[in-house]
């Protein structure tokens, strides 16, 4: 039989008393790590209608990593959960770039006809030179996101033809990749 942490056994997960013990173990564990968060959770449970939806969502988001760690420890897979979490964090710039830059900028600013004769390999080479590292999706996301955030916090002055071409290459490459992916998906 599968043995769980906190003195629990797998069959406890199917019994009310076991679930109450599991909840008590979580609250004790949470209090040891962040007593303030544990107190806020207890208050929210005591008065469930006392939180508006925004406050409830904020509490759940704050609790999420604690629940991940607790469940990982409960089943003895804490290292695997932390490794997946670290991988997700590592890829966060990629998702952010796709949402903020590719979907909002590249997809709307570059028309499909402007991509006629577009040389994706040359654009990737230009971008790799700008990045100072080999071209890849994650490198692209990190550098474009950093540049994009600077553009919105202070004006960027493009003083050389290379610095003017690089953001243009990034925008065109994003639009090309998005269009190419859509065409490939449609042909399957």
Number of helices: 7
Bulk shape:
elongated
Compute the separation of the termini in Å: 46 Å
Low-pLDDT runs of 5+ residues are 152-165, 182-188
Helix and strand sequence: HHHHHHH
Instruction: Give the C-alpha Rg.
Output: 24 Å
Q: How many β-strand runs?
A: 0
Give the class from helix and strand content and strand pairing: mainly alpha
**Quaternary structure state of the chains depicted:** single chain
Q: In percent, how much strand structure appears in the residues?
A: under 5%
DSSP helix fraction: over 70%
Largest sheet: none
Average pLDDT confidence is: 81
Task: Provide structural commentary.
Helix content is 74%, strand content 0%. The chain has helices at 16-33, 35-46, 53-74, 78-109, 120-131, 137-153, 161-186. Helix 1 (16-33) crosses helix 2 (35-46) and helix 4 (78-109) crosses helix 7 (161-186). The longest helix has 32 residues, at 78-109.
Task: Sum this structure up briefly.
This protein has seven helices and no strands.
Name the features.
74% helix; mainly alpha; 188 residues; disordered C terminus
SSE diagram, text form:
Layout: H1 16-33, H2 35-46, H3 53-74, H4 78-109, H5 120-131, H6 137-153, H7 161-186
Helix pairs in contact: 1-2, 2-3, 3-4, 4-6, 4-7, 5-7
